[in-house]
């Protein structure tokens, strides 16, 4: 602090010296020679007075400055303290800003992760919802099929309960198994009939291999006509039941082989055999006629004497 004060005083003295030098430089050297000693002394006195005045003024200014220096130093100290406080506050603010930025970035990263997780959960839920909707549709379709099958089975059970000679064996999702009886008085086994449902609202009929195929109109049809088809199958089997009953009795006396798919009966006699075609509807509406066979052929003139010979008439005639 003392050094600064001395520097200020030296600066003031240098300013006074510069003033004197400028004054001397401005004075004309010729005018000094012409000037009288009295004038010169007077001017010197004036200069001295002026110097003293300047010196006095300088000292006053120095005193004023010295009086102001403590105040200035105090204000400077206050400013320095304020500066330090501001720098500390700025440092804290910057640190808080950095922390806030880091916290904001961390929060943003956390929210982004939460958003991604929630988005995955939403996508998973949507996928599960689609799967559940598909399962519900499948279950509804299955329920509709089950209700349809139950209604159909109930209707068929009610229908079959009113049909004589028809008994229900089993009911499945896509099939119905029935036994069709010829008559309670006969020993002929019932005909096992399988009805298979199709997706087109129709059914297909399958019967035992030992029986000839029923007519095409009885092999398939619409489920709305199933009752009529069962009745026609019953009538069809009753006619064939009498044929089977007759064949069962004839097997006890003759060597015969029944080929149901061809509706052909092969009669063996020694080393010869004859083939007889049994027409559909026998014995009510169809008849029996011979078929040519090798090595022995049946003549067109070969015929029992009866007008409409039965199968029994033919076998008795061929074994004469």
UniProtKB/TrEMBL annotation:
Pull one GO CC term from this UniProt entry. Answer: kinetochore
Top-level taxon of the source organism: Eukaryota
The answer to whether UniProt assigns keyword Lipid biosynthesis to this entry is no
- The answer to whether the entry has keyword Signal is yes
Q: Which residues cross the membrane?
A: none
- PANTHER family listed in its UniProt record: ZW10 INTERACTOR, ZW10 INTERACTOR ZWINT
Protein name per its UniProtKB record: ZW10 interactor
């Amino acid at each position: 602090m003392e050094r600064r004060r001395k520097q200020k005083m030296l600066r003031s003295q240098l300013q006074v010296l510069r003033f004197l030098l400028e004054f001397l430089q401005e004075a004309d050297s010729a005018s000094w020679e012409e000037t009288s000693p009295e004038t010169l002394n007077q001017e010197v006195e004036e200069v001295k007075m002026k110097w003293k005045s300047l010196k006095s003024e300088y000292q006053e200014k120095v005193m004023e400055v010295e009086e102001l220096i403590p105040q200035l130093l105090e204000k400077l100290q206050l400013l320095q303290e304020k500066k330090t406080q501001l720098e500390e506050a700025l440092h804290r603010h910057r640190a808080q800003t950095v922390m806030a930025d880091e916290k904001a970035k961390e929060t943003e990263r956390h929210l982004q992760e939460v958003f991604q997780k929630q988005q995955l959960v939403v996508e998973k839920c949507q996928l599960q919802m689609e799967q559940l909707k598909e399962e519900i549709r499948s279950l509804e379709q299955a329920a509709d099929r089950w209700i349809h099958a139950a209604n159909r089975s109930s209707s068929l059970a009610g229908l079959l309960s009113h049909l004589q000679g028809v008994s229900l064996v089993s009911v499945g999702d896509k099939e119905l198994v029935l036994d069709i009886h010829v008559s309670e008085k006969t020993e002929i086994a019932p005909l096992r009939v399988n009805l298979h449902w199709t997706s087109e609202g129709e059914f297909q009929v399958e019967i035992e291999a030992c029986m000839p195929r029923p007519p095409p109109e009885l092999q398939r049809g619409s489920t709305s006509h199933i009752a009529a088809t069962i009745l026609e199958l019953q009538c069809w089997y009753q006619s064939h039941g009498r044929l089977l009953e007759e064949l069962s009795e004839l097997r006890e006396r003759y060597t015969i082989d029944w080929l149901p798919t061809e509706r052909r009966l092969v009669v063996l006699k020694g080393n010869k055999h004859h083939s007889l075609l049994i027409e559909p509807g026998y014995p009510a509406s169809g008849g029996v006629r011979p078929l040519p066979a090798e090595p022995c052929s049946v003549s067109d003139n070969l015929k029992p004497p009866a007008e409409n010979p039965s199968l029994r008439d033919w076998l008795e005639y061929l074994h004469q």
